[in-house]
Amino acid sequence: MSDKVRETSSKAALKELKEDYLRMLEDSFQNTSEIKKGDVVEAPVVTITDQFLIVNLGGKFDAYAEIGDYSDDKGNLTLKVGDTLKGYVVDQNAQGYVVGKSLTKQYVDKQSIRDAYEKKVPVQGKVYSVTKGGFNVDILGARAFCPVSQISARQVEDTAVFIGKTMDFLVIECSENCRRLVVSHRQLAELEAAEAKAEALARLSEGAIVSGKVMRMTSFGAFVDLGGIEGLMHVSEISWQHVIKPQDVLKQGQEVEVKILAIKGDKIALSMKALQDNPFVAALSEMKEGDEVNCRILRLHNFGAFAELKPGVEGLIPVSEMSRNRNIAHPREILKEGDYVQVQILRIDPDTQKISLSLKALQPDPWENIAEVVKIEEPFEGTVESSTNFGVFVTINDGITGLLPRSRVRKTDDFKSGDSVT
């Protein structure tokens, strides 16, 4: 091929490229010219500055939105580069188009309302009166109905507090001519909460130590807001010391530092106790089996009594270890909560962190002086405990019971509990 032919071919290719560029540029201008105030925008975020979110509308100009308009109540931005921003074109200036999160009356027409309904983009409305079953709302100059169940994510106790309030709504019903409009603030709030919850969940991990705020408390624990999602701190995870109810230790609104124990789906288990030193570990170096200690009775159960040996360290006194001298049916017969008692440590199990205690071990054994109480073939007086078909149980002394066999009882004898018998 000659140089002249090559030069001609090159010029033709360059001309074709130039024409393609001019055509694309013209399309860009045409696309941009189609954008007008009130239009619904769904565009990717390409840049985030200190004040603005920059989105690409695909035309000559980019659009921008104020960061504050897309931040949550705490000022945290809910979008990142690559996310899709939804909103309305609310203005145009030398820098490009201005996008707002919700549409205002200034830029409304029926098509805008229809677009808001179909694309689920928020619109701004003002509640102006209460009507049967809900509220009348001015949505962009049009009358809309908001059922009372849709005005808030929480149960409404006083409808009057919403009158005159300007809020964002989702259009959930829209007739063909937009004459019938039904709106919901609740669905919008729940949608935003779900998005915030998903984002919060994505940045949390098991074992992480995070800060949160106590939102509400029940008998079994406290719910802590971790910034868009709540976790449950069971009452047993508040402190190493026994906590009867969360309100004894925590206050609503209190800032707390917690450790994430587990994440299962959207359920998060939290602990303050996990961030505290385990007092049982220190107690192992200070106590041993056989030691006598003074302790405070904390709780009574039918199987025994829990006693505090040191702050956060508890031991159990079983009912079988409470007395040598009598049968104990329930600890309340000899103990009450708050009592201080002297006990002996029977067992310490480091693996289960359980300590067994005994009152009985420090009491004198009545069998040690049995020879002074009764002697073989010498009469003595006892008290009838109970009568059975094989004999009569008789209290000889505190802690000592004897059996009077039925073969040693006269047929005419009729023993009752509490009777004296020789």
User: What name goes with the CATH superfamily of the largest domain?
Assistant: Nucleic acid-binding proteins
Helix-strand pattern: HEEEEEHEEEEEHEEEEEHEEEEEHEEEE
Quote the distance from N terminus to C terminus: 141 Å
Q: In CATH terms, what is the fold-level topology of the largest domain?
A: OB fold (Dihydrolipoamide Acetyltransferase, E2P)
CATH top level of the largest domain? Mainly Beta
User: Strand order within the widest sheet?
Assistant: 1-2-3-5-4
Number of domains: 5
Named at the architecture level, the CATH assignment of the largest domain is Beta Barrel
The shape, in one word, is elongated
Mean pLDDT metric: 83
Quickly give the structural class: alpha+beta
Strand content: 35-45%
Q: How many beta-strand elements?
A: 24
Helix content: 10-25%
Low-confidence stretches: 24-33
* Alpha plus pi helix count: 5
Task: State Rg.
Answer: 40 Å
| Biggest beta sheet summary | 5 strands, mixed, barrel
